[in-house]
Give the backbone structure.
Amino acid sequence: MSHVSTPQHRDPEAPSRRRGGRDRDRSKRRHRGRNVLIALGVLVVALGGTGYWLYSDLNGNIQGVDIDKALGDDRPQKLPTSGQNVLILGSDSRAGANAGLNTGHVSGARSDTALVMHIPEGRTKAVGISIPRDTLVTRPECTKADGTTVASAKRVMFNSIYSQVGPACVVKTVEKMSGIRMDHYMEIDFAGFKGLVDAIGGVTVTTDKDIHDSSSGLDLPAGTHRLDGTQALQFVRTRHGIGDGSDLGRIGLQQQFMLALLSEVKKQDLLGSPTKTYKIADKLTAALTTDSDLASLTKLADFSRSLKGVDPSTMETIMLPVAYDKIDPNRVVPAEPQDSQLWKALRSDSKIPASAKKSPATGG
């Protein structure tokens, strides 16, 4: 595996150049965050109300990662005011069932989507902080699954950590960045996303402009469209056909699709149909990885029931405030003082100041 520690490393999907202000109007919505489809899927599975025999039948699908064992004691303390914090990753593995999904040509797997979901004490409202995949970060010293130690490195692209060291190191990196202990970890791959949308029967979206992206394969004229799983995957991964062509550009589409999916779930009353819920659960759990404390349908159900007071429609989603890197304009870095203000607000369960939501890279 390549070691991403210098700005000379290039991601084949990285934007070719930094764009100016001509897309400012569109960029103002990008700081509203990444999609929360993974979290939604888990809630759909856990709240279905199906019998225990169905839960038992699906338990074997879920893979577990012992994050606590892998990280040891070198972690932020659990604060009494920190609520619940969950790191949700979307894996872009090109292996197995993902190989035929036209998701790119990079070998291995990376954390293509990363979302820190913070549920304050009382669990009535949640906030999601998305971390752009092209963000340069300091990767802490980590231990791989085989027991070998990987030294700390600066200027590592965030989404490369997963393939270089593994999911536990992604958790550790986020904890070092934020000063917040992650209570749980969830991951879903592309095949799981596609299967979820197909199990629902598709999702309807409306676009105000044509989208033509030869990279993702998406070709949509302006108008209303019913997307199947493959098209939905293309939609949330499209970036070359919109905005400035950067990783930051697809955030608006991901948010739009998340809202459309929520609307579809409500319209079909999926949560009230055990048969439909089981079909969705079977597709989703086969592609789901969690920390060992959540690695069963029963545990996921208990956790999701504890979140039943959280209304997804009121969830605030914010992109980590970033600025273009001065050395490598194809990469971004956490912007200060916004970055520090944002994580401080989450640690103290206080209101996030408007200044902490402004991202220089998007003009927001």
Notes: Residues 23-200+273-350 form a domain with the Nucleotidyltransferase; domain 5 fold (CATH 3.30.420.590). DSSP finds twelve helices and 17 strands in the chain.
